[in-house]
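Kindly draft a sequence, keeping tokens residue-aligned:
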Amino acid sequence: MAWVWQAEARKRRIAMFFFQEGFTYRNFLLDALAIFVFVVWFWLLITVFADLFRRHDISGWIKAIWVIAVIIFPYIAVLAYLIFQGRGMAERNVQQAQQARDELRRVVGFSVADEIQKLDGLKKAGSISDAEFARLRARLVSGEGGALAA
């Protein structure tokens, strides 16, 4: 019977050895992975809450239900929100980025004429070809803007 107890103790020592070995490369990698997962988890929570409260297409009651679900069942609720609202989240992010870009252009004083003049200077300097100039000018005139960033 003593050999059974010794075998059990040996198994426990082997199982605990991984944590008792101190600072090793394996423990460092596990710690780094745990920190990464922790950061990603909080990033997902913040993203879901930001999208949830930024939405204007759902009522306050639905938002409250989502918040309660995320608090009570965090993993399931966050994954469900990402699965069912992922496309809408992407569309809302694009819309917010476009609004921010338009606001910046309004404040800074973006002018299509100024951009076309810059493009003409680039064409004369030989930095861009006639085809690139025509494409970027058409893009500016059509209202897409940001020709020099392309």
Observations:
- The chain has six helices and no strands.
- The chain has a mean pLDDT of 83.
- The radius of gyration is 28 Å.
- The chain has two domains: 2-109, 111-145.
